[in-house]
Amino acid sequence: MFRVVGRIGGESEGFVYGVxxxxxxxxxxxxxxxxxxxxxxxxxxxxMACSACSGQEVVYLNELEIQxxxxxxxxxxxxxxxxxxxxxxxxxxxxxxxxxxxxAATAEEPTLVPQPSTLGRRRNTRVNAxxxxxxxxxxxxxxxxxTENVSRGGLCFKSSKAYVSGSPIEVSVPYSxxxxxxxxxxxxxxVFQKAGDNVYRIGVAYVKVEEFLHHE
Length: 216
What we know:
Number of helices: 2
Largest sheet: 6 strands, antiparallel, barrel
Mean pLDDT: 80
Number of domains: 2
Helix content: under 10%
Radius of gyration: 18 Å
């Protein structure tokens, strides 16, 4: 039994709705879901699997953890089933369906460096991070982008697509075309374009579900 929470968006096949399970004790997926994330600590969200017991959990990543994962595609964390710290990697998803193409890779190594404290006017510390992210917007094809920086409040990326400031979107970061990705609600906070340039710099801010549904 489920309760309809509201309409999230639309696709070519029809509308997309969010529903909530009435009995939280029923385990539908065989995946460990932690309590609701504290937005003050979360930078990325990922479905991960323990390399020892293959148990799967939704993992909320902070600044340090997302840097470790980006460098190694794995990280060490406690496993309740193994009763010890084990190596965790991104869980594989269904790669049979169509996937958006990723941006072309460059020879430059990923850099993950905290922004200087001189930018203290921002509520959240930004981390320079070249991470794959997927941007999902109702009525448009998914776009895979490379982030310029990420923070607990959002992220920034470049795109040739002219997003509209204030429009609701969904974001998955870090993203893998063959992984089980987690999308969260967000909005386009600002769109900047240099004169004569056809590339836009997009700032994204995470939002609560209520604010996202209000835009719908």
